Amino acid sequence: MNLPDYLQCVEIRQLHAAMGILEIPLLPVLQPFERKIVENIVHEELDLKEVEFDRRLETSSIRVKKSELQGKPDELLTLNGRKVCAYIRDQGSSFNSELGMTTYRYHLCNCKTMQSMRDMGREGRYLATKRDDGFFEVYDKAKITPQKPTILEMELCQNCIKVLKSRGLYFYPFSLKQYFEKNDTSIPKTIRRIETVTKIQTYTPNQEDISRAYREKVNFICQECNVSCLNKPYLLHLHHINGDPSNNSRHNLQVLCIDCHSSQPLHNHMLENPAFKSQINIIRQMRVKQNLLTISSK
Ligand SMILES: [Zn+2]
Ligand SMILES: [Zn+2]
Ligand SMILES: [Zn+2]
After folding, report:
1. 154: Cβ–Cβ under 8 A, 6 or more apart, which residues?
2. Calpha distance 220→280 (Å, rounded)
3. Backbone angles phi, psi at 24, to 5 degrees
4. Which residues contact residue 124 at a Cβ distance below 8 angstroms, ignoring those fewer than 6 apart?
5. Mean pLDDT by 10 residues, the chain (298 residues)
6. Could you give the CA distance from residue 66 to residue 174 in angstroms, rounded to a whole number?
7. In degrees, to the nearest 5, what angle opens at C-alpha 258 toward C-alphas 254 and 262?
8. How much is the pLDDT for 294?
9. What's the gap in Å between 230 CA and the centre of ligand 3?
10. Which of 81, 185, 186, 297 is 20 to 30 A (C-alpha) from 215?
11. 254 alpha carbon, closest ligand
12. How far apart are the CA of 113 and the centre of ligand 1, in A?
């Protein structure tokens, strides 16, 4: 409902003039009440790079760069958080492709053999895999042309067996499948992506919201005596000029300090409240500090 603008009415203006009121400072226009809601939406997405890495490890083998196979002496071989097995793919006289046999063995630990290979700077010959059926892709070192790998069964290194035994991780008959099941803690293959969404919600303001908003709009300054209540906003009230608290038209509202408020017509009852009385005194002290004209006490 749009109320008529009584302040434009000549009779009311004359009445105000007769009362000594030259101008009633109007409150600024309030923006519609809006609430900003910031929501974080968590998306769990498959980490395709990790998934592809696992797929390659499980079905084939990956050449490891120097020191990529982490581990102190006797630790289980680990690559990017996965327990892996290491073996030499490019073999020479060690393997007989016709018989499908090799004298090389695969490793699961940073065993003595692995350490001495590292000391000799030869760890670059190792490939990492998580293929778990006991078979390995082996290339003939002598052939230079691209070749299909020979699939060979390989045995676990004796030094690795010793390490596994000393750590209580060995079992018989040994199988890589069981070894990975027991020792490889699966790493999460998802990425958490956090999306921040800002929503604006409009809502029906209550008296408290209106009061706070208007006091903020006038920078917490009393519209009558100009005292600044920035540090004590509770000393500022929202006064309804016509006495009707349900009329929140801005023509009917004034932001007043408690002192100015209590001196409005029909507001004498405020002076009977001891808490208000001491707050009025605080306002008067604030005016002095703020070099404002002290309004004579009422
Ligand atoms: Zn070994
Ligand atoms: Zn005031
Ligand atoms: Zn009032």
Report:
1. 87, 102, 104, 105, 106, 134, 135, 136
2. 16
3. -100, 115
4. 63, 64, 65, 66
5. 65 74 75 85 90 91 77 88 92 80 92 90 88 90 80 93 95 94 81 89 84 93 94 95 86 94 92 93 94 61
6. 29
7. 85
8. 55
9. 20
10. 297
11. 3
12. 5
Which two structure tokens, joined as six digits, stand for 33?
């009440």
Cα atoms in the 13 Å half-sphere on the side-chain side of 146: 0
CB 95, CB 101: distance < 8 Å: yes
Q: Is the Cβ–Cβ distance between 85 and 57 less than 8 Å?
A: no
Rounded to the nearest angstrom, the distance between the alpha carbon of 231 and the centre of ligand 3 is 22
Output the pLDDT for position 7.
64
b/e code 88-117 from CB counts within 10 Å (16+ = b): bbebeeebeeeeeebebbbbbbbbbebbeb
Distance (Å) from CA 205 to ligand 3 centroid:
19
Name the nearest CA neighbour of 293 among 218, 220, 224: 224
Residue 298 has a pLDDT of 44
CA distances from 255 to 108, 147, 206, 236, 281 (A): 78, 89, 16, 7, 18
Ligand 2 centre and the CA of 270: distance in Å?
Answer: 14
Cα–Cα distance, 88 to 66 (Å, whole number): 14
- Cα separation of the two ends of the chain: 38
Query: What is the sign, positive or negative, of the torsion defined by CA atoms of 39, 40, 42, 47?
Result: positive
Spell out the domain ranges in the chain.
22-38+204-289, 48-188
